[in-house]
């Protein structure tokens, strides 16, 4: 099975498009769908998906967790070259349909509410 991740990133008007195709393991357990794959940095990434939200856990050092809930703001910690940054994950849109989720979100600086970047993320999985 494969996972296709397409992410359109708006960095202050500069658009970047990232696409990844990876082997993925899918397991349904307790009402959740777990998708597990390895990213370019050889880190294990686990997506925990429901009809209403998605948690993305990247097993880096330190581990980073992002939680996407439609029309909600959550908090994440991301390792950067200047240390750990605490950011808000502002999800404008979360939609799950069959073997696809679509997420529109922004990473914001909590102190100022300023967007660092806006994202349009589409994740599909299956046999392609």
Automatic annotation (TrEMBL):
It holds the Pfam family DUF1934. It comes from the Bacteria. InterPro entries: Calycin, DUF1934. Gene3D superfamilies: 2.40.128.20. This is DUF1934 domain-containing protein. It comes from Streptococcus cuniculi.
């Amino acid at each position: 099975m494969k996972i296709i991740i397409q992410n359109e990133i708006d960095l202050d008007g500069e658009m970047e498009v990232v696409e990844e195709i990876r082997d993925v393991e899918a397991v349904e357990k307790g009402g959740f769908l777990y998708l597990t794959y390895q990213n370019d940095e050889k880190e294990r990434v686990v997506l925990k998906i429901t009809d209403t939200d998605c948690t993305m856990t990247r097993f880096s050092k330190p581990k980073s967790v992002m939680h996407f809930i439609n029309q909600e703001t959550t908090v994440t910690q991301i390792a950067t070259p200047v240390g750990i940054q605490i950011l808000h994950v502002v999800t404008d849109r979360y939609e799950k349909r069959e073997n696809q989720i679509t997420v529109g979100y922004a990473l914001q600086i909590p102190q100022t509410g300023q967007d660092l970047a806006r994202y349009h993320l589409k994740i599909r999985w299956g046999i392609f």
